[in-house]
Amino acid sequence: MSNSGVLPPWLVLDPLLRAWLLEDIGRGDRTTNTLLVEDVTLGSAKWIAKASGIIAGLPVAARVFQILNEKVSFVAVVAEGAWCEAGQVIAEIHGSLDALLMGERVALNLAMRLSGIATLTNIYVEKIADLPAQLVDTRKTTPGLRLLEKYATALGGAINHRMGLDDAVMIKDNHIAAAGGIGEAVRRIRSQIPYPLTIEVETESLEQVKKALKHKADIIMLDNMPLDMMGQAVQLIRQQDSRVKIEASGNVTLETIRAVAKTGVDYISSSAPITQSKWLDLSMRIVL
C-alpha cells in the first residue's frame, strides 16, 4: 500500500465540495431542518466499514462536514491509505447533528468511491510489485472527480499520468492522422511547446515505433500490441535509444498485466482501476 497520494489544496477542492453539497441539499434538507434546530443539538457518529479494503478520502469527508459547520470534529481511526476489515470503525465524528446528517451522503459517497479505486489500484500494483514496470492511471475519469480519483490511484500505489491536456504532449492516432504522419506531428509540436514538456507518441506497429524513434520522441506508447510485438518493440527501442521511456497501454487486465510487465516496459497505463472499481461499502451510525 502507498501513502504517496497528495490532495490538492482546499482552495481548489472547496468549490467542488460546496457544489456537491448544494446538489444534495438543494433548497434545504426537509427532514433535518424540520427535526433539528441548526447548530444546537450536538451528537456523535461512527463510520464503519462494511467491506475490507483500502480507506481513501477521509480528509475530504472531514472537509465536507466542516464546510457545513466548522466546529465538527472528524477523527480518523484508520490512517488514510491503510487497509481496513469489514466491521472496523474507521472514523469518529462529533458536532452539530444537523451538519452530520446533511453532510453524511456526500461525504460517504466520496469516501466509498475513492476507497474502491484505491483498493482495486493496489490489487493491480501488487501483481507487478516484483517487476520494474510501474502502473500509471489515465484521463478516463469521472468529470468533476478527476483530481480526487487520481489521488485515490496514487494512494493505491499507482503513478499519476498527466492530469489534463496541458500537462504533457501525447500524440495519439487521431493527432497523427490530422497531421499527416508522426514526423509532421512531432515537428510541428516540438517547435511550439515550452520547455521542459516531453513528447509521447502512441504507436500501434513496429513501423510506427521506428518513426517515433527517428523523430526523437521522449516516450513511446505501445498501444494494443500483441505481447510478441511488444517485446520486439521494447528491444528495438532499447537498442536504438536508451533514454526513451516505454509505456504499454490497451486492454490491460489483472490477468494480463504481469505478462505485459515482463516485456520490459517502464510503465503500464490502465483505466481499469478507476473505470472498473466498485465502491467500498461504508456506513455512518449516529450514537447519541
Describe the 3D structure.
The chain has 288 residues and is of the alpha/beta class. It is built from eleven helices and twelve strands. The two termini are 35 Å apart.
Total helical elements: 11
Q: How many whole angstroms does the radius of gyration measure? A: 23 Å
Provide the helix percentage.
40-55%
Task: Please report which band the strand proportion falls in: under 5%, 5-15%, 15-25%, 25-35%, 35-45% or over 45%.
Answer: 15-25%
Question: What is the topology?
Answer:
Elements: H1 10-25, H2 30-35, E1 42-49, E2 53-54, H3 58-68, E3 73-76, E4 83-84, E5 89-96, H4 97-127, E6 134-136, H5 146-155, E7 169-171, H6 173-179, H7 182-190, E8 199-203, H8 206-214, E9 219-223, H9 227-240, E10 245-249, H10 257-261, E11 267-269, H11 272-275, E12 282-287
Parallel strand pairs: 6-11, 7-8, 8-9, 9-10, 10-11
Antiparallel strand pairs: 1-5, 1-12, 2-4, 3-5
Features:
four-stranded antiparallel β-sheet; six-stranded parallel β-sheet; single chain; alpha/beta; elongated; 288 residues; 19% strand; 11 helices; 12 strands
Short summary of the structure?
By secondary structure, the chain is of the alpha/beta class. The protein is about 40% helix and about 20% strand. The chain has a 6-stranded parallel β-sheet. The protein has a 4-stranded antiparallel β-sheet with strand order 3-5-1-12, covered by helices on one side. Strands 2-4 form a two-stranded antiparallel sheet.
